[in-house]
Amino acid sequence: MKNVNLYRLVDWVKERFPVDVQELKTLTNEPVPNHLKHWWFALGGTPAILFCIQIVTGVFLLFHYVPTPEQAYDSVGKITDEVPFGWYVRSLHKWASELMIVTVMLHMSRVYFTGAYRKPRELNWMVGVVILFVTLGLGFTGYSLIYDQLSYWAAVVGTEIAESTPVVGSLAADFIRGGSEISGNTLTRLYVFHVVILPALLIGLVVLHIIFVRLNGVTAFEFEGERRSRHRTFPLFPDHVLTEAILAILILYLLTMMAIIFPAGLGDRADPLITPEHIKPEWYFFASFRWLKLTNVYIGVVGQIFFVGVLIIWPFIDKVFENKFPGAELSVWIGFLGFTFYLILTVWEALV
Ligand code: HEM
Fold it and tell me: How large is the average pLDDT for residues 134-157?
């Protein structure tokens, strides 16, 4: 009797949701190349896990955060000291954001150094570069919401730098600030960017990225030993999905440890009249900040725009190098030099 009711219920749902489960399984259960068993090749899933953690913890923070200059700082203080487990959720959100940036950079480095951006994946590389900058934008806007001295002044300096961009600079800065000066409007806009515009954009971009991965497949690499193996692929479900699930648990464990050992802190309340002696952005902007200090703001900004442009069209520049100097692996040398330069600037700024 029970079974008959259950079948009826299944039929009822099938009639209203006419999807062929078998077809869906075949569509989604694409075999995954064996090399994705090496964790550095499958790094793309890690920022995706962290982004999910960011959304869940972010929604919790939204229940208590008040985006006005008068109340922002106190509401962060309340989350940290009074709301049950508020300190934990806030620390998870902070550490997951930093880890997300690290893992996006690692995934990008893997793609770069294995040449996986080459034909036919040039467009997906370009989508990836936009993902990187949207992720950095989420970091910048999120940091500004705390409204302590450091985060407030980082926002002031950030918008001043944006203002130095040729042609569109002052328009962009006025748009972000909601006027010609930092005010309550600025916090509202940074808040809207952080909780609506950038997350929505990132969701769309990640979906597009995964569609591209599905359409082009991942670059096939073969290793000694594996070449002889008959099983050169493994199923996405349950194998790969289970690995990602275990990874998600390990990441949560790591983030919990970070939250307990280094809980998210709160500096002095923002004071627009007192400029702190040392203004520090988040570590991932250290290189950019040091570069601006070494040059003047105009050259610094133009230089960085040039760098972003090169990064976006890199697959096409690489193609020209490949044709002119076949086998020279110039991309590896350029990537190595670029990474070392970024590291030196970051460490330099960190030590000051
Ligand atoms: C939220 C950030 C990102 C997510 C969730 C993500 C996700 C993924 C996933 C799941 C894959 C499949 C293989 C793998 O795991 O490596 C992949 C591949 C790829 N990703 Fe990403 N990605 C992100 C950011 C980026 C960035 C910043 C770039 C480059 C600028 C990039 C470029 C690529 C390319 C070109 C591939 C194809 C690699 C191949 O064929 O081997 N991705 N991504």
Answer: 95
Q: State CA 342 to chain mean position distance.
A: 18
Residue 255 to residue 99: CA distance in whole angstroms? 9
Q: What share of the chain is helix, strand, coil (3-state, %, to 5)?
A: 75, 0, 25
Question: Average of pLDDT values for 161-173?
Answer: 90
Tokens of 216: 């082009």
On the question of pLDDT at 276 being above 70, the answer is yes
Q: Which domain holds residue 336?
A: 34-218+232-351
* Amino acid type, 340: T
Distance 84 CA to ligand 1 centre (A): 37
Name the one residue in this structure whose structure tokens are 């999807």.
Answer: 19
Question: What pLDDT score was predicted for residue 338?
Answer: 96
Tell me what pLDDT residue 221 has. Answer: 79
Structure tokens at 201: 């954009």
238 preceded by cis ω (within 30°)?
Answer: yes
CATH number at residue 265: 1.20.810.10
CB 68 within 8 A of CB 187: yes
Number of domains comprising the chain: 1
**Ligand 1 geometric centre to CA of 44 (Å):** 5
In this structure, is residue 225 part of a structural domain?
A: no
Residue 227, in any domain of the structure:
no
Closest CA to 178 of 168, 192, 191, 188: 188
Query: What pTM was computed for the model?
Result: 0.92
Q: Are 157 and 218 in contact (CB under 8 A)?
A: no
Ligand 1 near 206 CB (within 6 A): yes
Say if 149 falls within a structural domain: yes
**Residue 142 pLDDT greater than 90, yes or no:** yes
Q: Is 185 inside a domain boundary?
A: yes
Whole-number pLDDT of residue 278: 82
CB 218 less than 6 A from any atom of ligand 1: yes
| Closest atom of ligand 1 relative to the 131 alpha carbon | 27
Q: pLDDT tens-digit profile of 7-23?
A: 999 999 989 998 888 88
Nearby residues of 279 by Cβ (< 8 Å), 6 or more positions away:
150, 153, 154, 157
